[in-house]
Amino acid sequence: MSVAGFALRYRTIVVTAVAVLMLWGLFSYNNMPRREDPEYTVRTCQVLTNWPGTPTEKVEELVTAPLEEEINSLDGIRWVRSETTVGRSAIYVELDRPTPGNKVEQMWDKVRSRVDRVPMPDPSLEPVVIDDFGDTNILVFALYQTPLPGDDAIRPENRYSPRDLEIFADRLKNDLKLLPGVAKVDIAGIQREAIYLETDLGRWTYLSLTTSELTKLISERNVIETGGSIDVDVGHVTVKPSGDIDAVDQLSSIVVGGSDSMRAPVYLRDLGIDVVRSYEDPPSVITRYGDAGGTYPCLLVAFTMKKGANIVDVCADALALAGHLQKELKVFPPDLGLGIISDQSENVTRKINDFVANVVGAIVIVIAVVFLMVGLRSSIVMAANIPIVIIGSLAIVTLFGVQLEQISLAAMIIALGMLVDNAVQIADQTRSLLSEGKTRFEAALQGANRLSFPMLIA
To answer: pTM of the entire structure?
Structure first.
């Protein structure tokens, strides 16, 4: 017995199965993870080491070659290649293709342990293993200062410093990290603070002190070491030395010498050297945000999504959180703007809506074409197959971990086109059989049997 014949003879079973499949499909559609691109495993990492100003040959000999040799000793490495330039070593590590996705993170941990074994020629060098090439920020906020309500421009006395913006960005970052589905939150555009020792050239020439000696004095004074511990009768006491410098005044109080005549120490501030706390100049990165009111310095707060999460829900929760902090809790002042630079959930929602519109359009086309061939009743029955097949497909693909993203949507659009084509062909076959004198039941059954296999493929 054919599929079409079985469906016509046992209608109750078929209707029940279709109803269950439709309910399952609708439930799956509402709960399926959504994202813009499909999840994939990146089996390549980069080991980056910066040694500014060092010639290429020296970087290759002392950094790149030892790291390559140590990494190559690992099992499961497909190949290792490197690019060495002046002051920079970049090593790319590719894992074997059969490496399971759930084992990739363990391999990167092994790479890090091997990298840590290699002694660096300079204590300040620190190779960094970068393994997050596949991470994409799904939402990017811009925090910037705007004029107060009623003002045309930002008043100088009300202007926020880069550090003020960083404090607001840290608050937003900490709250975003608590949202379900948020994986990693980053802040971009931070201007690093720096302490400058400034004096005029004439005064410096009179001082019997070089910059190297001054650097040595500061490093010897700025001691960050453990003080050990002491066991006493009442317990275990940890000793914490207070040798680290954490304020400008402490830096000004460094003893750089002594006065033989007055038998008194000479501090750094006594030499006419000003200790100024400011920001890196020039800054390593500059970020600005523009709206209808102008262009302002800003900080970018962006986050990635965990695997299996729903991008629409995660972005909606993040936007609701930002509005709650700004409007209800009043954590952010009224002159702090919060702009949206990128929101992937809008693209995902638009693509899903386009797909739903294509399904509706396909139903309309089938009804119109089949109606002209075999009548209204048959056109409605054939058009009903389209949502049944699409929704049923959504129910089945969830068993294989398929998510709603642009690749799976494209595959369903292709299947949708095949459904429309098969519906038109069945209508044409049915019309031909009717013209041969077949009854409507026999014509519909034979027409469906001839194209049942393509319908199942669709």
So the answer is: 0.75
